[in-house]
Amino acid sequence: MEKAYKALEVSGLHVHVKSKQGMTPLVRNIHFEIERGSVLGLVGESGCGKSVTCNALLRLLDPRQTSVEGSVKLNGRELSGLHEEEMRQIRGKEIAMIMQNPMSAFTPVYPIGDAFIETIRTHTRLTKKQALELAVSSMEAVNLPDPASLLNKYPFQLSGGMLQRVMIAICMSLRPAVVIADEPTTALDVVNQLGVLKELDRLRVEHGMAILLISHDLGVISELADEVAVMQHGEIVERADVFQLFDHPKHPYTQKLLHARPKLIRNEPKYNR
Ligand SMILES: Nc1ncnc2c1ncn2[C@@H]1O[C@H](COP(=O)(O)OP(=O)(O)OP(=O)(O)O)[C@@H](O)[C@H]1O
């Protein structure tokens, strides 16, 4: 059988932070890999280390406060020894991040087109006109209406769902191999949530990108993920195929998480007056 192509491979990732007691572990011994065109869901309670893990992958943690050990391979290329300048080239272009709060990703005093064109031109040799064309086509691809006029708007003039789509469009315009989506739908209402998830899934299918999807919401995870890693206290305690995990959770913490899912409690007959 042909060997699956790994877009992202993480092994033995440890992060420590400086504290009065010395170096304190934040995440320990993280291992996972994501194949091209597939989605790994990363779940766990608040503070368990999901964002620290992602920031460590992208080398966004402050090296004066934290130390990171382990191996991170992107399309087979080891990232851990690279210089900051090389990492800057990789971030956004080969591995991109969609953040939780789209509003904070844009500078409020500039039209959104400025952010779009700056990102494209930082990573490509396209002219401003070509970058603009790419911005418009990327926005069309995520079903944003009238992209040319949207590019002239300021962030506060767009709804949360639209801004999230703009962020996805910016992210996708450079066709990264890996996308880290950190709670991409938390700030959205359910209709927009579904739209954004569908968009991510379409881009995964059409462009074969690998997605690391971080969410508290097991509903979101079950919509999109092929595999799920469950984190607790800085460690991955269980990793399994999504159906296996939902049907036969092994670790007590996974069982607890699944048990804590909101259920519809409306079986009682209606009150008759
Ligand atoms: N720069 C830092 N210095 C010290 N501690 C930190 C730092 N960044 C994060 N932490 C701590 O590391 C732990 C993990 O934080 P992290 O943000 O990764 O959690 P999370 O799982 O993403 O939570 P949430 O779901 O709420 O976003 C927390 O206890 C947090 O306080």
UniProtKB/TrEMBL annotation:
It comes from the Bacteria. The lineage of its organism: Bacteria, Bacillati, Bacillota, Bacilli, Bacillales. Gene3D superfamilies: P-loop containing nucleotide triphosphate hydrolases (3.40.50.300). Residues 8-258 form the ABC transporter domain. Pfam families: ABC_tran. NCBIfam families: nickel_nikD. SUPFAM superfamilies: P-loop containing nucleoside triphosphate hydrolases. This is Nickel import ATP-binding protein NikD. Belongs to the ABC transporter superfamily. It comes from Paenibacillus oryzae. It is a peripheral membrane protein. GO terms for molecular function: ABC-type nickel transporter activity; ATP binding; ATP hydrolysis activity; nickel cation binding. One of its GO terms (cellular component) is plasma membrane. Keywords: ATP-binding, Cell inner membrane, Cell membrane, Ion transport, Membrane, Nickel, Nickel transport, Nucleotide-binding, Translocase, Transport. It is found in: Cell membrane.
